Amino acid sequence: MVGAGQGASAAGSAAPGAATAPVTAGATPVASIAELVGGLRAGYDSGRTRGLEWRRKQLAAGIALVKENEREILEALRVDLGKPALEGVMAEVSYTLGEARFMLKKLAGWLKPRKVSTPMMAQPGKSVLVQEPLGVVCVIAPWNYPFQLAMVPALGALAAGNTVVLKPSEVSAATSNLFARLIPRYFDSSAMRVVEGGVVETSALLEQRFDHIFYTGNGAVGRVVMAAAAKHLTPVTLELGGKSPCYVDPSADLDVAARRIAWGKFYNAGQTCVAPDYILAHASVHDRLLEKLAATVKQFYGADPQRSPDYGRIVNQRHHRRLMKLLGSGDVVVGGTGDEATRYLAPTVLKNVSPDSPVMAEEIFGPILPVLKVSGPEEAISFVNRREKPLALYVFAGDRDVAEQFIARTSSGGVTVNHAWLHLAVPELPFGGVGESGMGAYHGQSTFDTFSHMKPVLKKPFLFDPSILYPPYTEGKQKMIRKLL
Ligand code: NAD
Fold this sequence. Notes:
Layout: H1 33-45, H2 52-68, H3 70-81, H4 85-111, E1 114-116, E2 126-133, E3 136-140, H5 148-159, E4 163-167, H6 173-186, E5 192-194, H7 199-207, E6 212-216, H8 219-231, E7 236-239, E8 245-248, H9 254-266, E9 278-282, H10 286-301, H11 317-326, E10 331-334, E11 338-339, E12 344-345, E13 348-351, E14 368-374, H12 377-385, E15 392-396, H13 400-409, E16 414-417, E17 438-439, H14 445-450, E18 452-459, H15 475-484
Parallel strand pairs: 3-4, 3-6, 4-5, 6-7, 8-9, 8-15, 9-14, 13-14, 15-16
Antiparallel strand pairs: 1-2, 2-18, 7-17, 10-13, 11-12
Bound molecules: nicotinamide-adenine-dinucleotide.
């Protein structure tokens, strides 16, 4: 086990290691949930959430929360996931700040009615789309990026003029506890509240009527959320996961590909919804890619990744045990060891993996990278298309036609060509799944749009009221209508 004080990364992050003693998330009394949601409903019904200033104030409060508590946030992430400080800064703190600042900058523009053209039939008149909030929004967050996956949708819902109940994951207990402490300090109780807890508390929460539910997590619970939402006809966004494939072509720069794949896979110890789940390597580069992946792991994390300050931990013992069982699905190229007590699992690459093996059955969601051999893009595309639609797809190819083939002939939530999951960082690319990997999207303006109803409004003057619309319907009117429509 690596204790505090061992090693120091170039970024100056603290030593690795998640908490070894269990941390427990709080549990909001079930009996209080209806009243808590009622307070948010009253906050919304007061009408004050609709104004630009109120919305700006919420975003400013979110930004202040992040800036003033960065040290505590990073510490909670270390306790929950052994998250290296740089990964916490990049993917949680700075990412959340970036999204919040972007919304703050654009908000006034987004609130202006969006003009659209008016066809002859509706002339004279003006057509506009008017943004309106939905009401009370429920955000249910997972444990892998427990800060940003809760804060970004919550701030987006507030920016769109809604009130919010935030349910952090009980699995990332230190972050859940931090939310319970910080949210009441920065937000009015009629604007945003936290409900902490597991299945019992979340089930009670889902009995309430919401105007939108934004859920991030696995598909099994996604189905539970959608069924609960159906009772109130509540729209949902489901940000789910899946097995994101990664094809490596002979035309790829293998050194760069190995580095980018290893980074995307072993970041957060593989617990990233868009991590490359498995590699489909062209037979002609398969062996060389394996060598380069093994060398990259060493270069990133040293000879003993357990001592690296730049490598995270598995979130809990249950997931650690689940992952350890998957190691038998192939031959170990690098890694393959683990320590349940400290929740360490080495960055692992597997070869000779059968498509029917356990590691290829479910989303891995951990630092195990199976590499399968394919004869070329055709076989890889048909392999991908025989499976559920993934959240992301990666293709590493210098040959642009190969990348275009994957884009045109496969379906996935999103694609990055020649890198891992950086499409997420582009605010103008909505992020979300398709099919089994989810429904709806957010990031950038699409976060705001997700929590808005863009109300279509046609404004007509009283003057000019041609009789063409009204009975008696004549042959002549019919002819005119055909011309106008
Ligand atoms: P999790 O166990 O924390 O569950 C997510 C949330 O659902 C938690 O708040 C939890 O309390 C709640 N929950 C759990 N069981 C419930 C039940 N029976 N009824 C109601 N609520 C319940 O997280 P997880 O599901 O293990 O997260 C990992 C999954 O999430 C992976 O599949 C991953 O790919 C996916 N994910 C997707 C994204 C994305 O943006 N698309 C991001 C992160 C994770």
